[in-house]
Amino acid sequence: MYPHQLHKIKQLYYDPSGAVISQFEANPESKEYEACSFLLNNKKVIYRQAKITPTKTGQFVTIWKRNAAGITAPFDSEDAIDFFIITVQDNELLGQFIFPRKVLSAKGIITHNNKGGKRGMRVYPPWNTVTSKQALVTQNWQAAYFYELLPEGTTVMDRIITLF
């Protein structure tokens, strides 16, 4: 039912902390990114698994929806979404970016007042060494929303659960 990585995180981190996933809905068009939506403790979440790309630092993830005409479009600041959770993994390193909708709107990643919006983005977990100035700026603002999932993950889950 759940995509592989979300299922693993749910079992190892969410369930033991008492977090409840409900109203799960898979998005088969973006199966490659484990795209789905659900409520996490009654907060609406858009979930994606980022992918390592061969030529650039960081990981890429798609974050789009279909509009009324059936065309791919960025999410909008007026959409009924509370958080975008993007899981990143590099071998044994695992973490989640948990971005509030308002943050992605302010950064121009989701549309606000018919301006801005993207269909994908690059995320830079702290274990990535970035070399470009733009990537460093992005990594710096994203750091506030990153939660590393460690084997003894109860401490980080306590912090995550307070968001929901």
UniProtKB/TrEMBL annotation:
InterPro entries: MepB-like, MepB-like_sf
Top-level lineage group: Bacteria
Protein name in the entry: MepB family protein
Species of origin: Flavobacterium muglaense
Lineage: Bacteria, Pseudomonadati, Bacteroidota, Flavobacteriia, Flavobacteriales
